[in-house]
What we know:
This protein has 224 residues and is mainly α. Helices cover 60% and strands 0% of the residues. It has helices at 3-20, 22-28, 38-43, 45-48, 53-59, 64-67, 75-87, 100-106, 115-120, 123-136, 141-160, 171-174, 187-193, 196-201, 213-223. The longest helix has 20 residues, at 141-160.
Amino acid sequence: MSESTRMLCYLFMAGCAIMLTPSGALKSMNTSVMVISKEEAIISNHLVCEMSGESVAATGEKLLKQLSQCQNLTADQIKAIRQIFSSGNISFGPPSTWTSSVLDQLSQLILILDHSILQSIPKNVLMPWLENSILHSDLSQNQLVRIRESLKSSRKKREIATCPGDKVISEKILNDDLMNELLSYTPGELKLCLNKENLMNNISAFSDYPFTDENLKAVKDKLD
């Protein structure tokens, strides 16, 4: 029997032993953290799915490809994988530099990345990749759609959260005939673009113009 064949047999038997009695196998090795090489993992992919979160963290990015093939990752494994990506110390580089080919390599791991990591991936890379994957990949369509809608929602909220530069309401506008321009503002824009101090100094001006009830409520809410 050749040396390579004996090694395959050894790894297979070791894999069975660890799968059957993982805690006992680790104890006999006098360690609580199982660290296996990339080469060993290629031969024994099933072992990777049995690793603890601590062991996953200890191996860094070496086993990410194998982990992406695991059907049911534990909470500890997911936490460890997220920490690996958040560290930025991986060959893929930081999420802000990822391309569609990187996303293809990550495959199923995309589904477990936390929101902050997903938001760091360039929008013009991630969104088309998600759309294509929803139509053509074997990944969970429901999860992909949920990620896509979540990102759309959060980006929309961020866009709404700040007053557009051309909508800023200065004290000059509140003291001038330009007040008429505010009639076209939505209630949300009034809330975002009105300065409370300027509003308090010029509140009477709002009674001279035909604002809608919704807009007047937005002005009142701004004062509260």
